[in-house]
Write the structure tokens for this entry.
Amino acid sequence: MEPRHCTSAFANRRAAHLIACTLLVAAGACTSPDSREPGEVRSSAHETGEHEANAHATHDAEAPIASSTPEAAAVPSFADARVLVWQPGIKNAYPRWSMDGRKILFQSNRSGRWQIYVMDADGGNLRELTSGNANNDYPDWSPDNRRIAFVSDRDGDEEVYVMDADGKNARNVSSDPARDIHPYWTPDGAKLLFNSTRAGGKLQIYEVNADGTGLRRLVTSEDDDTCARVSPGGDRIVYLANLAAGHDDILLRRRDGSDPENLTDDDAPDGWPTWTADGKRIVYSSAKSGTFCLWVMDVATRRSQRITFAAEPYADARASVSRDQKHIVFNRDEGDTIGILVVDLPADRTAP
């Protein structure tokens, strides 16, 4: 899966964790299951957000997603979650709930390049928002759903862009020859947090106004730090750290980047953290059970509860929690296939 960069990390870590613990997970990196994804768990953290040049055969964007295709018979059934999208050999990654829970934003390599799509919450009414020869990925909806932040290599390198919700009026807001990825909106919709190698090779956390002005570095470390999210209250950030010590852990800091605290601090790779709307819990992925599954942590007590129960060859990552805190849309990976599934978020209680 991706944590070692959220995308690349997933893949890298997958290999590392597989060898070290004989466990599993082959992945990409924080996000995109292919080669270009920094910020994912070392085993696959970079998977989904990677701009894969050698994607798969072109598929009709208008074709039904899960059940009406020739591959329908290959769509698996799981006891712990419901499948929305499953296309063998295709990667559909980084799903994001809309504000009202009626739509899901995501990226897919079904056309041979990473492109951004939106669909109804039941998997229907698919619409392609980007197209062309460039890779467009790592999408994130603004809090009011009027804009979408994403990454594109249309100008020769990975840059952060903001476009209207219908895919129009894209503008570059990072403008640097370094790698700029994993953009996430602040709760007020005024700024973006993203990761960049502009300071010397390691992915570090930066903040910029939505119009590209006011760039500020939030975290300086010897690690690859990615997938940073501002808390609903605006006072803290949670992110994935591909620690130089060899661990992929979830870290918490003050909004200005000070006072780091390792929330997971164990040998198992962890990644893709995201807040619940009330700011009381963090949903993340961890391989502590042997393969990547989703967990939810109570921020006050630091206690975690397991949500999904993937077993090899599957791995779960890249969760998005609905605004009403009832459902989670996420990715389940199996080799060259990344599906989109939905599971209920447990009630607000934790296990020892």
Remarks:
- Confidence is low (pLDDT under 50) at residues 7-39, 43-70.
